[in-house]
DNA sequence: GCTTAGGATTGG
């Protein structure tokens, strides 16, 4: 039997049936043709759990289907004149179905209770009303193309419809119609419920509701699919383009689907949400500095550096939702406002940064909500995030990795194409001058840190500190073959090698050499000098002399008078180079070292012909020694108003100081010059404000270190300004 | 079993 519920009584206890619960309802024939007939209403008695269920779920006005009832004589017929019979719903097989009929939105009559289906064209997340409840405001439409406003009031947030975006489909049960401003509107009324569905035609029809019980059957699925199909051909829904961080433009109000990385309470009216969607913003993103102990969630430093982190300031009424979000949650902002903002510490000629504000109020549906991780809307977001799995925050620079950079010379610097920007020339005084020809953008250090290598850029910064503080340690020996870098051995180590070699030394006797010997002051130690017989009579005569049995001091004295001195020792009468801890060549003020790893030591049969002028390179070649180069290496801790940054002075060091490393190795004057420059850049016992500004060209590049990319900064194309 | 809101940008 199909009929409308016209009356529903309370659940009472039946004394005649051992106190079992029962409920009386009156139902009436729905068919209009039957209405004129007699006895179109009849009583139904529900027993047991059926009574309770009916009481809870059925409402006056509902259409219900009853099956497997028993027809009994009505004991109240004489009194109510309703029907001589009544229907009794009892036992396992009796069943009652609610029969929902859905009204097209253009057929709504005022002041009626209806069920409708619609596509959501506008919605606001629930907000506190001025009364006692939260209010959801939405607008829906259907195939009739009529738009109907709808308000839903409920104290419980979880009872409100779960709408993720315009285009979602919603089913409303038991909503009361009324006229407002010449249009029909809907308001939830007793026993109301809502169910929503994703609006995409190809996604599965999965009802979203928090209702304890709701009816959902094949006919519902059909309704949803028909509405989806219709909506797909409507321009207002198909124009719904998704905005990502990579496509957002200044001034936009837009919806952002993203993942929460970290959050911090700024004040009583503002929460900062650090989010990302895996896409890189075209504009530099504003970073909002927060003390790390005030931040809940992971550090975003690596993502900041790659311009992946959006800092969203969430205000006022949205705090209630934002407060409860946990880092890692997927969420969507509605009507998020992006605009360019000047960072408080930003230099004048820098581009403005993109900031994000979820302003107070609910205009235009402004708000935010978390999205379930399995939401079909998250598929593209998740695949974008997956592309950054290597972005482990453990990559953050720490002291250990800094040390490694310090002792491991970086690989060749990759200079990218110049950024086509038109930065203004610097006006303030700088102790340095850039010599590069490119016109790269000038960036703050904070911005440099967020950039993605490789990159060439300009910065203006002061040197806060530098390493090594003992400047003589900045002079290094570098093997261009195996990239080994070592400190220049100190005199005590070198002099020890000489003493060991001179001990119990018998002059060596080589066929290729002419030798002269003399006794030293110490008994038993003979000093010998050898010249290649090949060279005798040539112009190179006396250019290259092999010295045996001297101390370090003695060979230094000798080197005042002879151009190239190679210290040697005798092993079983054969001439051999000293341990390569010692220089293999003394040349005037300079000492040259060989690489222990790469030197072949072909000294056994040296060839000394065909050389016009002997220098360290030709000597090294003749002896089978891999010559090590002198290099300068200093690490600057740069600072500007935005950040600090450790930058190496390495490839460009000699140009920077206008000093050659090898010359400095033998010249106190040049070493003093470097010291003077450093004392100007970073005056001893001075505050940072007293340090001069430096205009610097910076190379940002990645170095593979234990299979991990380490970002390095090197000062390039920059020189000291010498008056 | 009343009332709430009834779309329409903050101004940080």
UniProtKB/TrEMBL annotation:
Localisation per UniProt entry: Chromosome, Telomere; Nucleus
GO process annotations (BP): regulation of telomere maintenance via telomerase; telomere capping
GO cellular component: nuclear telomere cap complex; nucleoplasm
Pfam families membership: POT1, POT1_C_insert, POT1PC
Highest taxon in the source lineage: Eukaryota
Signal peptide feature range: none
Single GO MF descriptor: G-rich strand telomeric DNA binding
Domain Telomeric single stranded DNA binding POT1/Cdc13, first and last residues per copy: 102-232
Keywords: Chromosome, DNA-binding, Nucleus, Telomere
Family in the record: Belongs to the telombin family.
Protein name per the record: Protection of telomeres protein 1
Natural source organism: Labeo rohita
């Amino acid at each position: 039997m199909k009929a409308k519920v016209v009356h529903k009584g309370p659940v009472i206890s039946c004394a005649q049936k051992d106190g079992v619960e029962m409920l009386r309802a009156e139902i009436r024939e729905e068919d209009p043709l039957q209405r004129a007939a007699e006895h179109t209403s009849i009583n139904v008695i529900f027993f047991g759990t059926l009574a309770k269920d009916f009481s809870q779920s059925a409402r006056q006005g509902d259409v219900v289907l009853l099956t497997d009832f028993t027809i009994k004589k009505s004991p109240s017929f004489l009194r109510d004149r309703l029907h001589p019979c009544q229907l009794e719903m009892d036992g396992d097989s009796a069943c009652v179905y609610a029969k929902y009929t859905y009204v097209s939105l253009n057929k709504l009559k005022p002041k009626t209770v209806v069920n409708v289906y619609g596509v959501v064209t506008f919605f606001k997340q629930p907000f506190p009303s001025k009364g006692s409840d939260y209010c959801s405001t939405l607008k829906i439409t259907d195939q009739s193309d009529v738009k109907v406003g709808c308000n839903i009031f409920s104290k419980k947030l979880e009872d409100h419809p779960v709408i993720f975006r315009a285009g979602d489909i919603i089913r409303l049960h038991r909503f009361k119609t009324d006229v407002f401003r010449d249009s029909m509107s809907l308001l939830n009324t007793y026993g109301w419920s809502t169910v929503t569905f994703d609006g995409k035609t190809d996604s599965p029809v999965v009802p979203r509701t928090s209702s304890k019980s709701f009816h959902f059957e094949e006919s519902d699925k059909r309704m949803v699919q028909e509405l989806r199909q219709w909506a797909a051909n409507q321009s207002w829904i198909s124009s719904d383009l998704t905005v990502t961080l990579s496509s957002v433009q200044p001034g936009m109000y837009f919806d952002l689907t993203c993942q929460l990385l970290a959050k911090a309470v700024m004040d009583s009216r503002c929460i900062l949400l650090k989010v990302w969607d895996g896409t890189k913003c075209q504009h530099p993103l504003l970073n909002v500095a927060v003390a790390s102990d005030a931040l809940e969630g992971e550090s975003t430093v690596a993502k900041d550096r790659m311009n992946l982190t959006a800092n969203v300031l969430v205000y006022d009424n949205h705090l209630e939702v934002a407060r409860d979000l946990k880092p890692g949650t997927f969420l969507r902002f509605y009507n998020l406002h992006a605009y360019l903002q000047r960072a408080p510490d930003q230099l004048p000629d820098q581009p403005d940064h993109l900031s994000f504000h979820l302003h107070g109020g609910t205009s235009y549906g402004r708000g935010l909500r978390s999205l379930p991780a399995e939401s079909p809307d998250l598929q593209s977001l998740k695949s974008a995030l997956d592309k950054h799995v290597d972005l482990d925050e453990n990559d953050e620079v720490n002291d250990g990795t800094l040390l490694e950079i310090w002792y491991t010379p970086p690989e060749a610097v990759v200079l990218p194409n110049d950024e086509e920007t038109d930065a203004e020339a610097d006006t303030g005084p700088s102790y340095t001058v850039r010599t590069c020809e490119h016109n790269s953008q000038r960036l703050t250090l904070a911005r440099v840190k967020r950039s993605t290598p490789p990159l060439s850029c300009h910065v203006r910064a002061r040197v806060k500190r530098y390493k090594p503080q003992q400047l003589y340690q900045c002079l290094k020996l570098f093997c261009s073959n195996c990239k080994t870098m070592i400190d220049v051995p100190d005199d005590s180590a070198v002099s020890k090698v000489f003493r060991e070699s001179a001990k119990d030394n018998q002059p060596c006797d080589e066929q290729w050499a002419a030798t002269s010997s003399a006794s030293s002051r110490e008994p038993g130690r003979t000093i010998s000098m050898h010249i290649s017989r090949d060279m005798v009579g040539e112009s190179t005569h006396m250019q290259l002399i092999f010295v045996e049995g001297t101390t370090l001091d003695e060979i230094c004295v000798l080197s005042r008078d002879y151009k190239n001195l190679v210290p040697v020792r005798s092993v079983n009468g054969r001439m051999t180079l000293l341990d390569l801890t010692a220089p293999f060549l003394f040349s005037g003020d300079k000492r040259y070292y060989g690489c222990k790893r790469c030197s072949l030591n072909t000294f056994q049969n040296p060839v000394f012909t065909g050389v016009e002028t002997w220098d360290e390179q030709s000597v090294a070649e003749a002896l089978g020694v891999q010559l090590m180069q002198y290099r300068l290496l200093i690490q600057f801790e740069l600072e500007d108003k935005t950040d600090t940054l450790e930058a190496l002075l390495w490839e460009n060091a000699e140009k920077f100081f206008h000093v050659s490393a090898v010359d400095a190795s033998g010249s106190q004057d040049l070493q003093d010059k470097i010291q003077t420059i450093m004392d100007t850049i970073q005056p001893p016992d001075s505050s940072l404000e007293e340090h001069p500004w430096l205009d610097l060209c910076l190379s940002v590049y990645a170095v593979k270190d234990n299979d991990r990319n380490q970002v390095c900064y090197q000062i390039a194309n920059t020189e000291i300004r010498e008056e």
